[in-house]
Amino acid sequence: MSNKSKHIHQAAALMRSQHTGLLSTHSVSMQGYPFGSVMPFLMTEEGNLVVYASDIAQHSRNMQEHNKVSLCVYDGKQSDSQASARVTVLGTAQADAVDAQLQEQYMAVFPQAKSYVQAHDFRFYLISTVRLRYIGGFGEIFWFSLDDWQSHMFNLAASAQGAIEHMHEDHSDALALIVAHQLQRPVIQGQVTMLSCYQHGFHYSCTTDPATDKDATHIGFICFKQPITKDHGLRQAMVVLTQEAKKNAECSNGKTETMSSTI
């Protein structure tokens, strides 16, 4: 993999793993000024963005008047925001351009949005990517063209649903183990749902920590160790995650046994 390809995949993985960004639109009420809004988003197989916004929201009015927008996403886990990886997507927003399948995928990742369907005239917008700016860290600063971005996207739409059903029916134990490794806490088999499957990983939902709120649901994204390509298939990517999770579980059990024997 070339250095450029590596950074494109890093940028895509960051976009997949983060669910909220800063949407910048052209202000209608304050001409010439940008207007920033915190906005949940879903990235499509092609690398475009889906957002769901109310007609009464200022950013919706702005997009309807001027459809050139940007969305900035960054890794909020880093203590130094200036050193964290971030992506700025520049694109063109279009209302009512999201098909039913994409709407369903969005609702799966953001189930709270289902309650907005009948409220305040919410509608979907498709933000078609035009160009991207990626900063991976000190000295890692790149512009990616649309051709760069899309040529690195591997579409799993034809096989994703079958893979999800296979994981639920035959490998629910491995799925629970992978999510437990991600969350660093026990996860009960059968209480994990695989919501999506993309080139760079998959969304999942599971019950939250029973010690805090047993009825709440946690939704997250797990990145594959290596993106899906013609030479690195989905099955191989899931096997790698499973093996890593098993190794971690074995190490944790070993530490527990050692501590028990010394008490």
From TrEMBL:
Residues of the DUF2470 domain: 161-239
Superkingdom of origin: Bacteria
Signal peptide: none
Pfam (any one): CREG_beta-barrel
Membrane-spanning residues: none
Coiled-coil regions, chain positions: none
InterPro entries, sorted: CREG_beta-barrel, DUF2470, Haem_oxidase_HugZ-like_sf, Split_barrel_FMN-bd
GO cellular component: cytoplasm
CREG-like beta-barrel domain span: 6-149
Gene3D superfamilies, per the entry: Electron Transport, Fmn-binding Protein, Chain A, PNP-oxidase-like
Protein name (record): Pyridoxamine 5'-phosphate oxidase-related, FMN-binding
Source organism per UniProt: Brumicola pallidula DSM 14239 = ACAM 615
